[in-house]
Design brief:
With 288 residues, the chain is α/β, with parallel strands linked by helices. The protein has helices at residues 7-18, 24-41, 48-63, 70-93, 99-111, 122-135, 142-150, 168-180, 200-206, 228-236, 245-251, 269-275, and strands at 139-140, 157-161, 184-190, 212-215, 239-243, 260-265, 282-287. Helix content is 52%, strand content 12%.
Length: 288
């Protein structure tokens, strides 16, 4: 997705929220540098995610930390595991085998993407999740995707590209389901800390699999920055499941020749308009 006229305002809005992480004395200088980057890179950036990455570099610089979100990510994953995962599993156990379980996990994976970090209260996270999931999937291609998955063999690869760290425990329920029905799932996380995305090392601490891969791209999947090994894996997949808006923004600009199943909550007017959905709604969008 190309940069829209609304993207700079959104990038600044996130920067203002991120500034809360910083010491008060450097918050305005941080915002000033984000504005400078917007001015210098706006005409050159391929997608909104490319500019957002520069913002994250600045956050690391002004915070003096390689991973400014590290503690927040841990706190939120703990809340998810303690408060939300049991609710998802309880409902899952009451559903019949097959498509209904798959759709329930898809809905939860999309809805958990509706929470924006940093909002420090755990109750904020839970309330936002409940609010989004009650809306149900506004765009729902889950049945078509389930049919596609049902026709796959055990040697066919499904690649799942993770997004924010607090979403990972919910996303891994979907991975577990796919593995239980005999599918091979490769899971991608960020090689280096960037925003509140889960890193390769963080993923290894909560998920044991030989099929974990580290993305070189700082946000989303940027064809010009990604390793050839990872790009070849994605191209050889029968299906890519991609979490979040940065993956939508970048993957729509990369032709992998593979169906991509986007799971996210529409938190941005430009992305919502591009997809044809309403702001604040969870979607499960298949692009062929």
């Amino acid at each position: 997705m190309k940069i829209d006229y609304r993207c700079p305002a959104c990038i600044l809005k996130v920067a203002a929220r991120e500034a809360q992480i910083l010491e008060p004395s450097v918050r305005l200088p941080f915002i000033r540098e984000v504005v400078r980057i917007l001015n210098s890179e706006l005409d050159k950036a391929l997608t909104p995610a490319h500019i957002a990455y520069y913002r994250e570099i600045l956050l690391q610089k002004f915070s003096g930390r390689k991973d400014p979100y590290k503690n927040i990510k841990h706190q939120l994953m703990t809340i998810i595991n303690e408060k939300i995962i049991p609710l998802i599993n309880e409902e899952l156990s009451n559903l019949p085998e097959g498509y209904h379980r798959f759709r329930w996990l898809v809905l939860n994976s999309s809805a958990i993407n509706g929470y924006e970090v940093p909002l420090y209260s755990g109750m904020d996270l839970i309330n936002q999740f409940m609010k989004v999931i009650r809306k149900d999937l506004q765009i729902d291609h889950s049945e078509e995707v389930f049919d596609l998955i049902s026709k796959m063999g055990s040697n066919d690869i499904i690649s799942l590209i993770l997004d924010n760290a607090h979403e990972a425990p919910v996303d891994l329920l979907l991975v577990k389901y796919l593995k239980n029905i005999g599918r091979t799932v490769y899971v991608f996380a960020r090689k280096n800390p960037s925003a509140d995305d889960i890193t390769y090392e963080e993923l290894k601490n909560i998920y044991n699999s030989p099929y974990i891969f580290a993305l070189e791209s700082p946000l989303g999947v940027m064809g010009e920055k990604e390793s050839e090994v990872n790009m070849n894996i994605l191209r050889s997949s029968r299906l890519i499941i991609a979490k979040g808006m940065a993956n939508y923004e970048t993957l729509t600009e990369v032709d992998l020749g593979v169906p991509v199943f986007h799971l996210m909550t529409l938190k941005c007017e430009a992305v919502a308009e591009s997809i044809g959905g309403s702001l604040g709604s969870p979607v499960a969008l298949l692009r062929r």
